[in-house]
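EI: anyone free to look at a 296-residue chain?
SC: sure, send it
EI:
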Amino acid sequence: MGELISLFQSKNIFTRRDRRLVFLCGGPVSTRRRSFRKRLLHYAQASLHDFRFFLAEDAARDIFAHGYPFFVNIAEFETLISALADCVVVIPESPGSIAELGYFSAHKPIRDKTLVVNDLNFQGDDSFLNLGPIELINRHSNYRPTLHFNLKDKSPNFRAIVKQLRRYELDIRGHFEFKKYGQLPIRHRLFVVFEFIFLFGQISYEALELAISFVFQGGRSLSDKHKRELRQLLSILCAGQYVQRLDHGVLLVPTPDVKPFLDISDSLRNSLRIKISDFATRLSTRVRVPRKARSK
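SC: here you go
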């Protein structure tokens, strides 16, 4: 599998993005009650094809269903999602989203890319929310100022939100620099994880972890910290509909028609797929043996 290592070590490999990643916080989306977040999400899915919206609860639901039982701090998990996002949109319309707004405002890397969509009825209130977290975000965020809507409006015009989200050009192409896995920027770790899934076509978590260790660690195992993070990145990819789980969650496959984050020619990818098919078979055999032994 030297070709796979050479691919990632190539100085001519670039990142490629065709959508903005938005972390959307607000009211519930799974109940009959139509929150403003739910209406914005439905509008985005129908009309904003250059965006991909993430919901923290979707990622959390996936990791609790498919991750090994380890403690997940929700605040730290949402910080990870925020680090991957281009923009964090917070609609303080529920107790949870109000808490998120306060938490994000205290963290500079997050507040600098936060857009607040607040209730028009509270615009002039001398409240802690307005004079504290929102004022802080309005002072520092690249997506300021706060936008105000009637959050109960059943047919809101989202034009102002879309305009604010498109304030900056999408950084479509960037350079990918090969490093040890833990030294890669967090976004590049996400890109690498998805690239492996895209190249293999279908792969188990165990085989994915071994493949990453083989290419980026010289065969040395990932640290416990990065093993936990890898499971979280997979859940974020599932929540963003980049990856699907098959066979009761055992196999990871790329969602049809989703483009990878790394700019690699189709001919090279197809050539690599042929060469790694045997490698994938060996990995699958390697990770299944302990399971059979445990079942005896």
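EI: Residues 266-295 form the longest helix (30 residues).
SC: 👍
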